[in-house]
Specification:
Layout: H1 5-8, H2 11-20, E1 25-29, E2 33-34, H3 74-77, H4 80-88, E3 91-94, E4 101-106, H5 109-118, E5 123-126, E6 131-136, E7 142-146, E8 149-152, E9 158-159, E10 169-170, H6 173-176, H7 209-224, H8 230-245, H9 253-265, H10 270-283
Parallel strand pairs: 6-10
Antiparallel strand pairs: 1-2, 1-3, 3-9, 4-6, 4-8, 5-6, 7-8
Helix pairs in contact: 7-8, 7-9, 8-10
């Protein structure tokens, strides 16, 4: 459901006001999703933020790269190149990690009741279905840490729904523990693939190092842009990377770490990443390495 134009016009002055207070902001489209990369940045060919590690605008002037577009720069926010995004924006969002806070997103009454019984009281913001509990401090983001509960902090965005009520408490171990996953009992994925997969080294089909770099960047973006079925998307992406780059010895530990980091930023656990990678190796007949 779209919002009336007169309401949309309020997003820009609100964004400028929040940016002045140190909150990195960005516009969202209908469906609470960020604006996609512009043609110049499609598939991260611009090289601006292929790993999405820090907030701030890309080298291009548009609100590209999802949460990483969040900025406090009024010149960027009020620029002509952001104007079309503000005109069609459905809502306003911010990067909690860039603002030095963590949002515990409680999606239903049961999750709210659990939080009241389990977590330290803090500033609370009402949402459409539940509440955002805001804590001072940052941590890795994670989805579905328990039923109806997501963590939004580093490398994530949250809707701006008002300042909320109550004093902001410091991030505690009880909140940080929500994102801690159980150690995996599965076989670990290879820690380095600097030796060839599949026995003997096959002829490398990559004409230049840029070909492999482009493939890894595209894989990262495919995982990052997944709006649902993240586990299945990660597995299919791992499978595609290994089928193209897994037999010639070009993949390194650093490449694998980048893929795992992208998946974990979408809420996948380290265990799920390892299992998905191992399953992809098995499917391609590379698991004996």
């Amino acid at each position: 459901m779209t919002q009336p134009t007169d309401i949309r016009r309020e997003h820009l002055p609100a964004a400028l006001s929040l940016a002045t207070s140190g909150l990195p902001v960005l516009p969202l489209r209908v469906g609470k999703v960020p604006f996609g990369n512009c043609p110049a940045c499609a598939r991260n060919t611009c090289g601006g933020r292929p790993n999405m590690r820090t907030p701030g605008p890309c080298l291009c002037p548009y609100p590209c790269h999802g949460w990483a577009a969040a900025t406090t720069d009024p010149g960027v926010i009020n620029s002509p190149t952001w104007a079309s995004a503000w005109r069609s924006a459905a809502t306003l969002a911010y990067h909690p990690g860039g603002a030095g806070v963590t949002v515990v997103d409680l999606d239903d009454p049961a999750a709210i009741q659990w939080a009241r019984e389990t977590l330290p009281a803090t500033r609370t913001v009402a949402t459409t279905r539940g509440e955002h509990w805001i804590y001072r401090g940052t941590m890795p983001s994670a989805n579905a840490v328990r039923s109806g509960v997501d963590i939004k902090s580093l490398m994530a965005y949250a809707r701006w729904l008002g300042p909320g009520t109550g004093a902001t408490a410091a991030l505690t171990g009880a909140v940080r523990a929500l994102a801690v996953k159980e150690p995996s009992t599965a076989h670990r994925a290879p820690q380095t693939l600097s030796i060839p997969l599949g026995g003997q080294r096959e002829k490398c089909p990559h004409r230049t190092p840029a070909y492999l770099e482009r493939g890894i960047a595209m894989a990262e973006q495919r995982i990052t842009e997944a709006s649902s079925a993240v586990h299945a998307t990660a597995y299919r992406t791992f499978l595609a990377v290994l089928s193209t780059h897994g037999r010639c010895g070009c993949l390194t530990e650093g490449h694998i770490a980048r893929l795992f980091t992208a998946a974990q930023a979408k809420g996948e656990s380290a265990r799920h990443c390892t299992d998905a990678w191992t399953n992809a190796l098995t499917t391609l007949g590379l698991s004996h390495v």
